[in-house]
Amino acid sequence: MKRLFLVTLLSLAVSATAATPETAAQAVNAFGLDLHRQMPKEGNVCLSPYSIQSALGMTYLGASGVTQEEMARVLHLPKDKEALAESFAALSATLMEAQENSAKQVAQSKKYGGPSEALKLHVANRLFGQKGYEFRETFLSGVKSHFGAPMELMNFIKDHDGERQEINHWVEKQTQKRIHDLIPEGGLSADTRLVLVNALYFKAAWQSEFSAHATAPMAFHANGVKATVEVPTMSQKMQMKYVNGRGFQVVALPYAGNDLHFLLIVPDDINGVSAVEKKLTLETLLACAKAEYREVILHLPKFKITPPTVPLSELLQQMGMTTAFDKPRGSADFDAMAPKKPDDYLCISEVFHKTFIELDEKGTEAAAATAVVMGKAAVAFAEKPKPIELKADRPFLFAIQHAASGACLFLGRVSDPR
Questions:
Q1: Which of 192, 232, 390, 416 would give a disulfide with 188, using CB separation of 3.0 to 4.6 Å?
Q2: Coil/strand/helix, residue 309
Q3: Residues 169 and 119 in one domain
Q4: What letter does residue 217 receive in the DSSP assignment?
């Protein structure tokens, strides 16, 4: 079997179109929630639904038949590939606008004590394909046009491990060296024919930074147990979007420019994070993005999450995406990517995903990369209310969200911030 690898790091698409970002944003969030629920029920979790969907979205443009139908169902994608691609391009364009808005605001407000640093959001897509292989020109042109992903020719047949290192170096460069060794040793083979890569780097200052002098050790119920540990906790009183849900509270901390924010979801019960995960919906995420402002006294622990590379193939198959992985044998259909022949056709062999996130008084830095490997197979209020005090002193959920569309670039859980 000749492997096709799709590697994605979170990055921005390059073309603005008349399409709207809603289709892409809903697909990102719906799939992100589904995948998050498949993660281990304990410990810290960090995913980039946008990165994974960008990589698999590019792959979807090459799918046909039953494989396309399964991918559409699992990934919450429309049958119209062109509409999907245009929506992703539109979402990327709005994210680039957010970066420009942030830069303008920081330049204007810096002398008045505003945010110290503008939003940095870098998205890069690329195809790494076996030279001489018969890829369809319509697929290559579509991915390049809508996802800004050019093709770089490789020789996996001759030196698959050397090419793996080259791809990993490219990922490191795109993510400011925050994502290392995305594709592990042995992740590619002489049968690899294509690696689709999406890379994302995100760094943003808070619209209103926390004072380091206010950071102090506070009790945290690590992993939802009654006993507590002390962790460095930031505190601030400010106006922010607030939602009082059933069994949880949500606040949105804006980043410089106000186009993106950090969504904090805190369960009412010390060990209630699992129950909240089960009830989170697309509507909840969108409601949080559009919520009213309230004055909140927030206590939020600093944290840093650096999970290892996560292989997603088994989870995706459990969710119903089987033929893309050639299960049963001979069922993979990526004829729109490269001609399917009885003795030479493509299937996905693995999807690699890796993230990084660090949050402190100044803001948030995060990065993500996803790799899909494919190969050749022989087959405002009238009366001012009192401030709300919210303590994130128990396992909580978080997201980095684009306010206008509601799309979550990152989604995760903090069970222990240490």
A1: 192
A2: coil
A3: yes
A4: E
End-to-end Cα, the chain, rounded Å: 43
> Count of residues for the chain?
418
pLDDT band (50, 70, 90) for residue 383? low
Burial 213-243 (b: 16+ CB within 10 A, else e): eebeebebbbbbeeeeeebbbbbbebebbbb
DSSP letter string over 91-113? Answer: HHHHHHHHHHHHHHHHHHHGGGT
Its domain, for residue 181, covers 3-205+305-377
Instruction: Clarify whether residues 249 and 321 are in a common domain.
Output: no
List the structure tokens of 104.
């303008």
Residue 342: CATH number of its domain = 3.30.497.10
* Predicted confidence (pLDDT) at residue 346 exceeds the cutoff of 90: yes
Which residue is it, tokens 């001489």?
132
Same domain, 41 and 122: yes
Distance of CA 229 to the CA centre of its chain: 30
CB atoms within 10 A of CB 210: 22
Q: Report d(CA 293, CA 43) in Å as an integer.
A: 31
**Is residue 74 domain-shared with residue 181, that is, in the same domain?**
yes
Interstrand relation of 345-359 and 3-9 (parallel, antiparallel or unpaired): parallel
Q: What is the pLDDT of residue 112?
A: 63
Q: What are phi and psi of 157, to 5 degrees?
A: -65, -40
Please give the tally of structural domains in the chain.
2
Q: Rounded to a whole number, what is the largest CA-CA distance in the chain?
A: 73
pTM higher than 0.85: yes
User: Cβ(194)–Cβ(130) under 8 Å?
Assistant: yes
- Asked whether residue 385 falls in the same domain as residue 361, the answer is no
